[in-house]
Amino acid sequence: MTLFLSIILSFYSNQLIDKNSEVMKFELVKLPYAVDALEPVIGKQTIEYHHGKHLQTYVNNLNNLIPGTKFENAPLEKIVSESDGAIFNNAGQVLNHNLYFTQFSPKGGGKPQGKLAEAIDKTWGSFENFQKEFEAAGTGLFGSGWVWLAKDKDGKLSITKENNAGNPVTKGLTPLLGFDVWEHAYYLDFQNRRADHLSALWKIVDWNAVGDRY
Ligand code: MN
Hints:
Elements: H1 3-16, H2 44-65, H3 76-82, H4 85-101, H5 114-124, H6 127-140, E1 145-151, E2 157-163, E3 174-180, H7 187-190, H8 194-201, H9 207-213
Antiparallel strand pairs: 1-2, 1-3
Helix pairs in contact: 2-4, 3-4, 6-8
Manganese (II) ion (MN) is lined by residues 50, 54, 97, 180, 182, 184-185.
């Protein structure tokens, strides 16, 4: 582009575009089911608070933090991979919960199919062994965080334990399935019984949605 043309274009765009309105806003992910559809595994009140209050707060915080930073209009995964502090905490939790709330279905449960099922069998010997290791990782995580099934660029699977807002994208991995072990995810339904909550979640996992991520 000629210098003349770029000067004209930059003048033109500054005149016509309000800089603030250019920054893309993150939105609260829509639930693919009714708020009471996952009962009794996840109760209506838990969904209303977890999605409508906790996640909405992370979305609002992120939208307030991004303007004026290098992350304006960046994809969420990139923000999570490259940020720290408050931006990382809120972006991580938006990404985590977007994956979380879209991986369940009232018609879920059963077992993974196809290539994901083969990869799980290859890695852990059986789906049941995978479930045991996944639950143990979530139960053994101290404090708040997440347990993830993730794949690397070659499709190799692993279970990762992440503190607080952590997500496997920070390790160059792709998250496939995440169980939230923050108390807000289960306290109204299971109180202190995190292990019981984790073992109940298998009944609502939408393996079609998880398989699509693989
Ligand atoms: Mn949560």
